[in-house]
Design brief:
With 78 residues, the protein is mostly helical. It is built from 4 helices and 2 strands. A two-stranded antiparallel ribbon has the order 1-2. Helix 2 crosses helix 4. This is DUF433 domain-containing protein.
Length: 78
Amino acid sequence: MSTDLLKRITSDPDICHGKPCIRGMRYPVELILELLGSGMTTEEIITDYDDLESDDILAVLLFAARLSQVKSIYKIAS
């Protein structure tokens, strides 16, 4: 199921400067994360953005979780 969800996240240089977006539409992942972070619920987001589906929100969260899975963090010399 997670693979199917991640297919909803696309990147196209001609849409939002290549930022990861939902299903080729002009809804960047970062926008949805900001809305969730501001306290909006999935239902509120879907109500405000008619062409989004609940699986799109789940895909955004899964995508963000995968991005945060790093093995090591290295300090860059200053």
